[in-house]
Amino acid sequence: MAMTLTAPAPAATVLAAPAPAAPAPARLPLKPAAAQVRTFEVVASRTVSPGFRRVTLQSTGDGFEDEFEHFGHDHWFRLLFAGVGQELDLPFGPADGWYARLLAMPEATRPAVRNYTVREARRVDGRWQLDVDVVVHRDAAGQVDGAGARWAQRCRDGERVGLLDQGRIFDADEHAGPVLVIADESGLPGVEGIAHSLAGRDATYLLEVPHAADRRALPAADVRWLVRDGGRPAGTTALDALRATRVDPAAYVYVVGEASFTLAARAHCLAVGVPKSRIDFCAYWRTDRVRA
Questions:
Q1: pLDDT of residue 28
Q2: Which of 151, 173, 206, 239 is the most exposed place for a label (fewest CB within 10 A)?
């Protein structure tokens, strides 16, 4: 008996669902939702290297505990502290108008104000503790120079200070390409926070410090430490290294440090093709004003 063989039906074509598009990086907050001048107290201080003094500040239960959110990166704040022999008086109130309130205070009781970054933030028994690394500038004779550095050297446990949260400046949240960070020693505490926040991303760091012992471990792919000769102005060693480095025009660039150095570094990055929109910079100090 003849057998008829029927060809098998063609297999159905299975169309795979398109892979979902990768979500754009989320934009995280840059500024606090609310901030006021708050009271903190010193709970520890110590020298961590020739160029840095670490001060630990703790909130005092006046509302900061519910107000503060740590943004990582280069989260910064304004520190208000009393001069030698002076009682601390603070321009309490919201962030809006804080400077006008400060100027309205009598000069004899007006606190000094300096800007610092949060190296590390943690909750301890319901209070916030902030580690702050203060650069110890020195003059030509080797003496500690600058109001902030002198305060960090003399502060004692229990001393009260004021703090005004300001958020962060570094903003590569929506940038998927490489990151280049250039800083002198004044930017190092903030850069350390940036490196921890960016761990695992394609990032290069050009970091100038005055002493080899000021170098520290960073969780980053490419860290280039640059120890400055004592006679050179701050930032010049990092600037030389930047000019010798091939800068990817697709990079997000962040420059922090002495004012003339940050402007020169920004100008170089613009000249090699990095768009203005992908360069952020902040002048933390000026050589001619360190004593102020």
A1: 74
A2: 173
